Amino acid sequence: MTRVAPPLTERTAPFWTSGADGLLRILRCDGCGHYQHPPQPVCPACHCASLSWQPVSGRGSVWSWTVNRYQWIPSMPPPYVVAEIELAEQPGLRLLTNLVDADPASLRVGTEVTVCFAKAGDAFVPLFRPLADDDQG
Ligand SMILES: [Zn+2]
How many A from CA of 44 to the centre of ligand 1? Predict the structure, then answer.
């Protein structure tokens, strides 16, 4: 599967290129510590404009998902899982992404997942896969 490279803008490039070193980074408020995604110019919690990209654990859980069965993009043959993942760092901090290495029949709300990355152009697209037994710790 060849992914379409996302456009890298001044605001989003740190998110899309973060995976180059294997870490997921999320924009965090320097004032109150609130994480936000997608990235915005001010903190939605305290309106502070001092924000920085901080590495997160890459762990989360399935908040919702669906199985796409339509071929929207020639290089992405269906079926594949589109999921909203809630990151472990903060309730409500969610990413829309794809789940890989996942049997849709075994997915549940709350299934624990971990990040992995797929190179697409200059981007490292964050994807998630169900946590395996050897991912503990
Ligand atoms: Zn804040």
Answer: 7
Query: Do residues 99 and 84 lie in contact, with contact meaning Cβ atoms separated by under 8 Å?
Result: no
Nearest to 39 by CA among 30, 58, 52: 52
110 falls within a domain: yes
- Residues with Cβ within 5 Å of ion ligand 1? 29, 31-32, 34, 43, 45-46, 48
**Domain around 114:** 13-131
* Torsional class of 89: left (φ above 0), alpha (ψ -120 to 50), beta (otherwise): alpha
Into how many domains does the chain fold?
Answer: 1
Q: Compute φ and ψ for 101, nearest 5 degrees.
A: 50, 40
Position 56 in a domain: yes
pLDDT of residue 134: 73
- Condensed to tens digits (0 to 9), the pLDDT of residues 36-83 reads 999 999 999 999 999 999 999 999 999 999 999 999 988 889 999 999
pLDDT of residue 68: 96
Q: Kindly state whether residue 3 falls inside one of the protein's structural domains.
A: no
Q: Report pTM.
A: 0.92
